[in-house]
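Continuing from the previous page of notes. For each protein in this section, the sequence appears first, followed by its structure tokens. Read the first protein now.
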Amino acid sequence: MSATLRLALSGLRGRSKVAAGATALVAALAAAAVVAGLSVQSQGGPQVDEIYRDSGRPDLVVYGEPGALEGLRGDAAFAATGAVTPFVTGDVELGDGSVEARVTPTPPASAVGAPQLRTGRWPAAVGEVVFDRAAAVEAGVRDGDEVRINVAGRPLTLTVVGTAVDLTDCFYPDCDPIRLFVDPAGLQALAPDGVERGALLIARLTHPDAADAAAARLGTSPGVDGVQPWPDTRDDILVRELIFGASLAGFGVFVLLAAAFVVAGAAAARLLARRREIAMLQAVGYTNRQIIGGLLGETLILGVAGAVLGWVAGTLIAPFLQVGLSAAMGRSGLRVGATSLLVAVGFVGLILTVATVLPARRAARQPVTDVLRDAPPRSANPARLARLLEALRLAPAARFGLGTVLARPARSALTAAALAVAVAAVVVAAGFMSTMDKMVNDPARSGDPYDAVVAGDGTDGAATAAALSTMSQVAGWYTQTDRRATLGEETFLARAIGGDPAQARFMVREGEPLREAGEAVAGYGFLQRFGVDVGDTVSIRAGEAPITLKIVGWYSETEDTGEVLMYRAEMLPGATPDAFLVNGRGESPEALATALRERLGTAAAVRARESDPDELGVFTVALQVMAALVLVVSLANLAAALLSGARERARVLGVLRTVGFTVRQTLAQSATGGAALGFAAGIVGLPAGLLAFKLLADQVTTGIGAGPGLTQSPSWLLLVVTVPAAALVGAVAGAAVTRRLAGTPASTLVRWE
């Protein structure tokens, strides 16, 4: 066994169990944070890819006229296709509102793109329906429940006999319509002859990587209304997982930083206590390299053990942090990966190495003769320190407490830095919560500046427009017509906006709003994907005819991760609006939807705008837990540092007690030292947290397509109280950890040990 390894094992045997456990715990927390973030990012992809394979690889969904779609089935790009499938659109009542639904007959289980049954069975008679799994979980719909669907003004009650996952679009509530499946005879009952129907064709490509190119080519074919390639659908399904996982992993940086400062401070204190032992090892022939290696070895053994525990914990909790997919597909199973273990051990090992080697080198380089004299360890220049404290004109207790902190500047700096990281983490968590709340309460930030939707299918557009214009509850409205369009060989979502342009109150972030034909405004994701900017001109195809548009601005949009281009409906003549988007005069979305149903009648499919606070709740709770962990670790480190400093100066404290220092003054001096560290942490952590929050939040809002600059700062109250609260917490911690020492008799304190 090498000398370095013997030193490491010897150090572990002589190490305090509490201190060893604290080092391993900090390493475990840091590893768990990183592993959980990485796991959340990666766990959804295999789930989606598995169901994609089980569904027969639906690489392309083409919408259009039945005859045109039938002619496309022999296209050279297709390896296989399902049958051309008719469908009808309607509205399903869910809770107090309704949601748009697409109803198709149940396809054969072997068909390309066949939905995957999750519960129950397939419909076998008129009046039975298989419900969209994501919408069923969201609304609490179970097998055996009855649901009411309205198609072209014809209400019908259906019994839910099962739930299924369909991959022709992403999942509710991110995408609609939801997908329902009925018996062929059930479709005829919902939509008898004369009711408008659509049609779709699902294809498996010979070369799946060429899905975008095939979509761009087929999207311009006569009779084709739109094309949805699988890569776009997959990205939409996984976008929440990727953004949430990246945010967790980024937030894990705070845990790593806190771990670095905590371990560095603990290492410095431990090495200070072991300075005689180190000097004796040098005296008997151990080299500085061996001593440093032994000190590092014992820390890394604890750190690796903690990292493995953190890896296990992060792997176990990752499925419970899943957002976006769990409703439709259930929680993912445990995914044990060697890569995440190596990343966790690597990150933690690097942090512990840096945090241990620097103080170890300093300790090993102390003169052996000076150390062996058993004199108290030297602190900062006492004369300079005394002059500084005298100039501050503080009370004796406060002067003594501040002197305790300043006597060990390096250790105090590390302690304050760890607490500053915790302050920054709290600020970041509070900022994220404010930003998410603002996204929910101000729907224009996510590209939904309306309160209710009136479906365009099956309604008289002119009559609907006239009715909306006369309703006192309606502040304004506009129409929307979506088409899959092409630019070059890539497809994207193009949106034709009709009605009064002033009523389409999208949040334009740069440039001008959409006003007239020939203009366009783009989502931030569109600009990034195609490398264009405000002022550029693009030529797209939205249907059979090419359209040339000048981009006059970009706006906040989260649908299709911001890869959306909006233009005036006059550029798409003859197209029927998909929906009327309505704004109310202060009413809630649900109240406005109720008023619209009363005014427009049962033939109109109306639903209130929906938000998704439950999914955002998982995100914010996870950030709160992470911030709390960092805060607990940092406070524990603060308490340990204050107690260590008080014990080092116990003899001086005993002398002060003999000349009249009271127990209250003893507690006050420790509280002063803690308050000084807390104040310094607040002064540094507050601006650092605001900067880190802006950087992280911009990454999140950019990733979901809304673009940078949408961050909502934490409340002014939090910002105002942060520094005083940090100082108060430090003072309370300082008084608490020295309470026992303060009651120790002076005769015991003056004995130097």
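Done with the first. The second protein uses the same format. Note its length before scrolling.
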Amino acid sequence: MAKYEVRQTAVEQLLADVKADRIAIPELQRPFVWDSVKVRDLMDSLYKGYPVGYLITWQSVGAKLRGGQVAAYQQILIDGQQRVTALRAAIAGLPVIDKHYKKVRIRIAFNPVTEEFATRTPVIEKNPQWISDISEFFNSAGTFTFAKKYLERNPEVDPERFEATIGRLAALRTAQVGIISLADDLDVETVSEIFVRINSKGVPLSSADFAMSKIATYGDRGRNLRKQIDYFCHLAVAPHAYDDIKENDTEFSATDYLKSIAWLKDETDELYDPEYGDMIRVAGLVGFNRGKASSIVSELSGLDPETRKIDESRIPAAYDKLEAALKQIVSKYHFENFLMTIKSAGFIAPNMVRSKNALNFAYALYLRLRQDPGMVEGERKRIVKRWFVLSTLTGRHSGSFESTWEQDIRRITEQGAANYLKQIEEGELTDGFWSVTLPNALETPRTTSPYFQTYLAAQVSKGARGFLSKGITVAAMLENSGDIHHIVPKDYLQKNGFPKQGDYNQVANFALTETSINVSISNKPPMTYMGIVAAQIASGKLALGEITDADDLAKNLIENAVPADFAEVTAGSYPEFLIARRKMMAAAIRDYYRAL
């Protein structure tokens, strides 16, 4: 069976199909990213008969059209949005949505004498030789009347040449555009593969893209759900865009969907800024117990998982589940309480979270556990924190994470979250993990390592102070401007047998400290600068930091997982120091995890 068919269609037929909703372009509600020069070039290519690439559509069953009608099928445009939007703007004269969500016009001018296209400017508008907006020509009552008026304004123009030129311009209506229509019975993975192979740019199309397109085909409700997702993600990053959305998307502004996300206009936390793919996946876990975005497309298409056939009667219930899940996801109370839960585990800065998928699953888990009336809030938060940290340490949500997600959700449902979590902990967080696997994983120069970031989270959670700091905490430095300091200074190591970056830039040689302390230590070896601290404790006269008590110094070294005898470390004993500190850091992470 053919997986797709290739056909040609006239520009005017394409625009008519879009207008009648036979071809859905859900992305039209998102900002138009082409500039007017690209629109001009598209018109010029069509005029000259140059190829403009294929549009790619995918058939959708049970789509709702404007006016409440239900289509037997509808083609979803999955590639070519910008080209179709450009055609609608230039030829039909329809506005586009700019980055401020305002409707603006892109006007393309044409000079019948020179046969040039250009973006309309004030100079062109005043020049009678130019047709300053070709949409006025295409939307005029008749070519004859339009031509007559033009020649009256330009008596020097050769009528015969003008007639030939204007005829070629009019032929843009019937210019052929290629459309590749993918079969309706293809699964999302197959559609994705075909898309990549026939798309000249080779840009992959994700399952989340299909899901977003599919959501928008369900009439006004689907379009509003699609916008709710889009706008939530946009406002999470740019709260100031709220006024633009409210002012310029009046239809959406009149719905409860905007009200549900309006709180984001005052939200500035950057710890978790989900993209639409993240929202789709969380919704899949919460609403459908599914980890794959493609599974949501199947659900919204009415695919019966047992018969593997389309059952349109299943579609309304699927949209009910999606909307209910999104309502939970965008809730201010849920979102903020989840963020507080993650922060209470010590992950207080965006760059500490190395796996967005771990955060996505943790949020879905949090929302699902909220559906359990018998679970108290403290237990819910304990499970979510442990699951997030476990996922971060083990890379549980990397690789083929979607299959893992579905397995985890299924077993959480069957066994209960607490029991299943304990089972995973017993299998993965063994004594060997804490004593061997984790110390070995900390043998890295990457401060972005999830293991090092979890160590910092452990310090935050315990209220640890910076290295040799009396009162400034690691949390305060992560939120402001603390330095990552080489405990055994880089310059000292470079001059004493460790010239390679991978040697001195080991995370086991790093500690957060105040800038002033870092400057005071400079390139002094541990014996020298710790001698200064010892003299400071003896005299009470500050010279390096503010610690003046021996017990407080010992406590500070423990807080920073630094061996008590590290003042004796030299270049010769540096490798042994790294081994000892990695073990201490791993032990600190273990104790932190068990205390969550």
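What the second structure shows: The longest strand covers residues 4-10. The two ends are 55 Å apart (CA to CA). We return to this in next week's lecture.
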